[in-house]
């Protein structure tokens, strides 16, 4: 668990970078053999690309770095429970383990609404651990959206 918290802190740092860009503060870090091989944060607004989620960007960077699409020994740390798109990419890239911070009651597909990552009918399942540094990860999102709503009210 201490190791999980260490890497989740790095994902939180990525989330803060997203927040500085007025992006939804979500960060991801991919670890292979106890080394960070990729890190990313949301860039959906900056790039105006619906697929520019932190998890997908980290997975893409890791695949390029390792020269393979199979991430069978990797652990992905992400500050928010993966959405259906990201859960699909995680499963298809065969990430061994997924550790997330805050649960997502509106789109979480790693246990909240459903769990695509452990669905037995797929040819790959990931180990899933949720709630790591949950309060800190959740507070980033709560504060971001509260600030956004206040700005909209002032207009």
TrEMBL record:
Residue span, CMP/dCMP-type deaminase domain: 2-120
Domain of life: Bacteria
Record's keyword annotation contains tRNA processing: yes
CDD domains: nucleoside_deaminase (cd01285)
Cofactor(s) this protein cannot do without: Zn(2+)
UniProt function note: Catalyzes the deamination of adenosine to inosine at the wobble position 34 of tRNA(Arg2).
Protein name: tRNA-specific adenosine deaminase
Organism: Priestia iocasae
Gene: tadA
